[in-house]
C-alpha cells in the first residue's frame, strides 16, 4: 500500500471502516489506515528547510460512494489527515466534514458576490467586524425565510420545490415578503444631513494604516530559490574603498 495505493492487493487491514446509507450518494464506504506519512519534498513550504525533512505521520482515508447526486460514475477519493487514533465515529465525522466543505465554499461565494461582504472599503478592523455581523444577520434572515418566499424564478431557471429555494432566489422575493411582515420598530423620524466639513478645510483625521498580514511570495522550487538568491546577490552594491592619502 505504501508504494502502489490504487492496487488493492497492497492494502493492509484498515484500522477503521464504516458503511453508511445516504440519500444523495447511496451506500457510502470509508476506510482509514493509520501510521502513514506523505512524501515531503524540498519545495513550497519546505523550500527553506535545509536539514533532513521530517516524517509527519497521519491517517489515510479512502471513501467510495455508490452513486453521484446527478450524473457520472463515482471514483474513490483518497484523503489524508494528521489526526491519529481514529475510530468509526471520528471517521464518519471526517468524511462528512470533507463533503460539507462544498457548502462552505458556496456560502463564502454567496456572502461576497450577492451580499457584498467585501465591497465596503472600511477604515479599521472594528468596522469590518460590524459589517461582517450585519452580513451574517442578513444571511440568517434569508435562510429563515426559505419556506415563506415565493419562487420568482427567471425564465431559464428550473422550478424549485417548496422550501428548497436557494438563498439567491429568497433574496429576490424578500422585498415582497418584507412588506407583509409586522413592523416591530417605530417609523423613522425625518432628519437632515449635517453641515459637514467647511469648504477649503482639509481632513485632520487621517485613516489608520492597518497591517494586511500578507506574506511575501514564496519560492516553489529550488531552481526559483537559486535564481532569486543569485539575482539578489548581483544587485548588491559593493562598498567603495576610500583612497589612501599619504
Automatic annotation (TrEMBL):
Residues 183-246 are annotated as: Disordered. InterPro entries: RNaseH-like_sf. Residues 192-205, 215-229, 237-246 have a biased composition (Basic residues). This is Transposase IS4-like domain-containing protein. It comes from Glycomyces luteolus.
Amino acid at each position: 500500500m505504501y508504494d502502489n495505493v490504487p492496487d488493492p492487493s497492497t492494502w493492509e487491514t484498515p484500522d477503521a471502516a464504516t458503511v453508511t446509507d445516504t440519500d444523495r450518494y447511496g451506500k457510502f464506504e470509508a476506510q482509514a489506515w493509520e501510521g502513514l506519512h506523505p512524501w515531503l519534498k524540498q519545495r513550497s513550504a519546505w523550500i527553506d528547510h535545509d536539514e533532513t525533512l521530517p516524517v509527519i505521520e497521519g491517517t489515510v482515508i479512502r471513501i467510495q460512494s455508490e452513486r453521484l447526486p446527478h450524473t457520472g460514475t463515482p471514483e474513490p477519493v483518497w484523503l489524508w489527515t494528521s489526526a491519529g487514533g481514529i475510530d468509526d465515529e471520528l471517521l464518519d465525522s471526517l468524511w462528512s466534514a470533507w463533503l460539507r466543505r462544498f457548502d462552505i465554499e458556496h456560502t463564502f461565494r454567496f456572502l461576497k458576490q450577492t451580499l457584498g461582504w467585501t465591497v465596503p472599503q472600511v477604515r479599521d478592523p472594528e468596522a469590518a467586524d460590524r459589517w461582517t455581523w450585519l452580513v451574517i444577520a442578513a444571511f440568517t434572515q434569508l435562510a429563515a425565510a426559505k419556506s415563506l418566499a415565493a419562487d420568482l424564478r427567471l425564465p431559464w431557471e428550473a422550478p424549485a420545490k417548496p422550501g428548497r429555494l436557494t438563498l439567491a432566489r429568497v433574496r429576490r422575493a424578500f422585498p415582497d415578503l418584507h412588506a407583509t411582515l409586522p413592523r416591530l420598530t417605530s417609523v423613522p423620524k425625518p432628519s437632515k444631513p449635517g453641515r459637514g466639513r467647511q469648504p477649503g478645510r482639509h481632513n485632520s483625521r487621517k485613516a489608520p494604516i492597518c497591517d494586511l498580514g500578507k506574506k511575501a511570495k514564496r519560492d516553489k522550487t529550488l531552481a526559483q530559490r537559486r535564481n532569486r538568491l543569485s539575482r539578489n546577490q548581483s544587485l548588491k552594491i559593493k562598498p567603495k574603498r576610500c583612497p589612501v592619502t599619504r
